């Protein structure tokens, strides 16, 4: 069983984490678009040049999915996350082009216990993704649920996220 | 060149469109998760049974991506869409399981001209996705930009979305 590093108590408002970077290729951008968002500016260089984006760019959903991968690899897999009911804000601020290097930062904005479940806490976070020029390309905000740190001496089973 | 059926003027507040359905397989759910959201409950049946979801379920981002594909195939490819700056709300209301049949409905909530660009209008829409039990699994709301219908006699070039 994996060790958990982050419980609700560890996610303090005002804290920030750098969650790594990703650099999509043109092939990856086209492959995602062919499956999920087959608009010309995500598939075809010529059509993209004539579009408002000025060149082939990633589907906004691809950008979100790449951010999620960084989130899982560099944070959630060591956390007592119980998932998220959704987002209150999602902004695609700039297009993402092939070869861009995208860096993810995760900020804790707010935190409160969950009234109906004493073993769970809520955390409001922001996800900020920047390209290699320092321009923000993605901004998301929403609440997530995290299991609270079990009392000393509690059994291992109760530490597993989602096992309750 | 494709014909455009929907300009800003055609998207009337109160109108609704049914945009088809999709049914993800367990293999598709695992493939998306392996690439973008490798949490155990999206990858492994046994781990998923022990989770709060009770069984293997799709990444929320996979659900969004499937909704986008229906949106493009059954609406956007015939529209003068100029893209979206983002969403004001995204709710994952229920888990999506393999073999679920997901149906997308698109509602126009509000509409206004864009002050800074007389050839563009804004439309506030809701995306609602339901499973075969009639349960809503996804709700999204946000603004989109659409080109306005060109005046009679205007050249073909000005009708191409994103060409301006």
Task: Describe what is shown at a glance.
By secondary structure, chain A is α+β, with helices and mostly antiparallel strands.
Give keywords.
164 residues; alpha+beta; 4 helices
Tell me about this structure:
With about 160 residues, chain A is an alpha+beta fold. Helices cover about 20% and strands about 30% of the residues of chain A. In chain A, strands 1-4-5-6-3 form a five-stranded antiparallel sheet, with helices on one face. In chain A, a hairpin with a 5-residue loop joins strand 5 and strand 6 (about 135-145). Mean pLDDT of chain A is about 90; it is low at about 155-164. The interface of A and B includes residues 38 and 163 of A.
Strand order of the largest sheet of chain A: 1-4-5-6-3
Helix content of chain A: 10-25%
**Terminal Cα span of chain A:** 16 Å
| Annotation, overall tally of beta strands of chain A | 6
The mean pLDDT of chain A is: 92
Label the structural class of chain A: alpha+beta
Q: What would you call the shape of chain A?
A: elongated
What's the number of helices of chain A?
Answer: 4
Roughly how many Å is the radius of gyration of chain A?
18 Å
Main sheet attributes: strand count, strand direction, barrel closure of chain A = 5 strands, antiparallel
Query: Which series of helices and strands of chain A comes N to C?
Result: EHHHHEEEEE
The percentage of residues in β strands of chain A lies in 25-35%
Oligomerization state: homodimer
Largest interface: A-B, 43 and 42 residues
Indicate the low-confidence ranges of chain A by residue numbers: 157-164
């Amino acid at each position: 069983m994996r060790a958990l590093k982050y419980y609700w108590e560890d996610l303090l408002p005002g804290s920030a984490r750098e969650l790594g970077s990703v650099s999509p290729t043109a092939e990856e951008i086209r492959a995602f678009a062919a499956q999920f968002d087959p608009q010309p500016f995500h598939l075809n260089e010529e059509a993209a040049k004539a579009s408002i984006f000025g060149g082939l760019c990633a589907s906004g959903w691809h950008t979100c999915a790449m951010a999620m991968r960084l989130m899982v690899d560099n944070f959630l897999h060591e956390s007592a996350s119980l998932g998220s009911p959704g987002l209150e804000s999602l902004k695609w601020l700039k297009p993402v082009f092939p070869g861009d290097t995208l860096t993810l930062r995760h900020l804790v904005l707010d935190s409160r216990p969950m009234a109906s479940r004493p073993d769970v806490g809520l955390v409001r976070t922001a996800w900020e993704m920047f390209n290699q020029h320092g321009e923000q390309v993605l901004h998301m905000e929403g609440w997530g649920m995290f299991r609270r740190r079990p009392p000393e001496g509690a059994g291992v089973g109760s530490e597993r996220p989602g096992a309750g």
